Amino acid sequence: MAQPKKSTTTDFEHVILLITEARNRVYNKANAELVMLYFNIGKIVSEKVANGNWGDGTVNDLAKYIAEKQPLLKGFNRRGLYRMKQFYEVYSDEEIVSPLATQLENEEKPIVSAVLTQLQGIDKEVVKFVSSVLTQISWTNHLLILAKTKTSEEKLFYLYQSMKDKLSTRELERQLNSATFERTMLGNNFGSSIASKLPAGIFKDPYVFEFLALPEIHSEDDLQQALIKNLQNFILEMGKGFTYMGSEYRLQVGNKDYYTDLLFYHRDLQCMVLFELKIEEFQPEFLGKLNFYLEALDRDVKRPHENPSIGVLLCKGKDVEVVEYALARNLSPALIADYETKLIDKKLLAEKLNQLSEIFYRNEE
């Protein structure tokens, strides 16, 4: 087949562009209608359940009725209907709707103006938010955000990122799994003008942990135990792939027992991760002791198919936090890079340690 002339190729590319743009418009229109449909069904289910008109059995009956009347439809089973209910309840909440809807008022036009007429009896801010934001994001991405975020601040962040950067499902999942929200907030990199529309300090601490109540007269041992408990919860919530193995994990070296602070197993890295906490200024010998623990773990606890253990040292001094990794010396640079990518970011750990310990020092004063 002869190659077309350059000018002809340009014309061909223009036709391909027209096809692509038309397909995108059709997809956007279909996605907007689908999201709007789920929002409206979620509204019906939510209101019926809230008013006591429907129970779980009725929702099951609705799922069966849809399956009977529309057998080719997917996603309308009991689980799907409750997801729609959750979707409506989350995004009809003023705490989530108002900041982003206000920001978008003069920036984004609703991509499907016709759907506004479908939202009867709903607050005007919610209408604007649903049309301008939610309909621009795929349902799969919505499900990821609902499942993997806890606070309204996180949801706003990932909704905006999905819309602004047109994130694919894989890209969004990677951001969620790597704690992009927390890292961005800690680094003060959320430069979008949306931040100026939100209340001051709204991104300071997306995960609120209850600090364990300390006795009136408390020691550094009390603080250490409280911090360890809260860090355990934080690591399990923030750390992708971490499984808790225990605190005060006993290691026997010779005739002497040693007790470590927090031990986890990382399923993706296939290795143990030991966290050691010191309520004092960093000293180099702390890393030496941590490496001693790692050698004992690898010698007595590690299984043959597992990778060398990792240590994470957290030091809380009066004015500064230090977080250091301890890795086996014989690890390859590629494996070290993989370890550090999948571990919780040092800055995030230091910030959390600071937030938790501030309570102790504030009470001490």
TrEMBL record:
Residues 202-353 form the YhcG PDDEXK nuclease domain. Residues 18-183 form the YhcG N-terminal domain. InterPro entries: PD-DEXK-like_domain (IPR053148), tRNA_endonuc-like_dom_sf (IPR011856), YhcG_C (IPR009362), YhcG_N (IPR041527). GO terms for molecular function: nucleic acid binding. Signal peptide: none annotated. This is DUF1016 family protein. It comes from Pedobacter endophyticus.
